[in-house]
Amino acid sequence: MSESREFNAATVEEAVDKAAATLGVVPEQLSFEVVDRGSAGFLGMGSRDARILVELPEAETEVPASAKEGPALVSDEEEATRPSLEELPLEEAPQQEEPSAVTVDAPDDLILAVDEFMTSLLDRVGFDATVDAYDAGDVISVDVATKETGLFIGQKGETIDSIQHLLNVSVYKNRPFVKKIMVDSEGYRQRRVEALQGMAHRTARRALREKRSLSLPPMTAAERRVVHLYLKENPGVTTSSEGQEEDRRVVVSPV
Q1: What does the pLDDT read at residue 40?
Q2: How crowded is residue 109: how many other Cβ atoms within 10 Å of its Cβ?
Q3: Residue 2 above 90 pLDDT?
Q4: Rounded to an integer, what distance in angstroms lies between the CA atom of residue 118 and that of residue 53?
Q5: What pLDDT sits at residue 41?
Q6: What band does 46 get if pLDDT is binned at 50, 70 and 90?
Q7: Where are the alpha helices (DSSP H) in the chain?
Q8: Which fold has domain 190-254?
Q9: Distance (Å, rounded) from C-alpha 201 to C-alpha 205?
Q10: Which of 1, 117, 152, 201 is 20 to 30 Å from the Cα of 192, by its Cα?
């Protein structure tokens, strides 16, 4: 007989992180059911938290004292290598099996549905834009070309991320999940990765020069993984994550 406990946060991944930190385990050890995937709303409106129900074996129902003392630090090995829940927005992350290395081709009717929904959405919102949806292998890419790129992306990518979330939820509402739909405009996603890597590089140099740990600004789980993976090749520093939910950030420390 096992005991269940509910956790909630802005996203399923953050709820899993929260449960793992509270229970003193790594996320891969959790057995959970997604009660509500939550919603980012449309352009930030009408949002609600994601909710998960975590099952604990009887032998693990007690919370370790170390977990009660504060948020656990997560190493770069744990956060950079574990499967991304964000990359599976409409299905639970695999718990028993490793994801298949074989990339499944997206059917033509799915690509067409993505293109049509995105075009219709932009028309309703009032963007003068063109849409190009195609199978990019590990994701379905949707490139949006518009003269209002800055407005479409939004501050810190909030608008483009909200539109991407809405697109994934709507397209897969009545069809099986195939692969994540990724929305981009004018190469924004790649520029963001390069900006994060530049920030990580400068922070690592400063940490070595000043011989102390330094914190980066709060980031999403996907952005933190970019930093962890980039600095993993730097033998002079180590990385970890600390904080909870929206305040979670990467800490760079000299070896």
Answers
A1: 60
A2: 9
A3: no
A4: 33
A5: 56
A6: low
A7: 12-23, 65-68, 76-81, 108-125, 149-153, 158-171, 188-210, 221-231
A8: Ribosomal Protein S8; Chain: A, domain 1 (3.30.1370)
A9: 6
A10: 117
214-215/181-184 β-pairing: unpaired
Boundaries of every domain in the chain? 3-70, 108-186, 190-254
> Measuring CA to CA, which residue among 58, 40, 60, 61 is closest to residue 49?
40
Report which of 101, 82, 112, 103 is spatially closest to residue 179, judged by C-alpha positions.
103
Rg (C-alpha) for the chain, rounded Å, is 19
Q: What is the DSSP letter of 63?
A: P
Rounded to whole angstroms, how far apart are CA atoms 228 and 76? 5
The DSSP output letter for 211 is T
- pTM reported for the whole predicted model: 0.54
Residue 85, pLDDT above cutoff 70: no
Check residue 5 and give its pLDDT.
Answer: 81
The CATH number of 108-186 is which of 3.30.420.40, 3.30.300.20, 3.40.50.970, 3.30.420.10? 3.30.300.20
Distance of alpha carbon 96 from alpha carbon 98, whole angstroms: 7
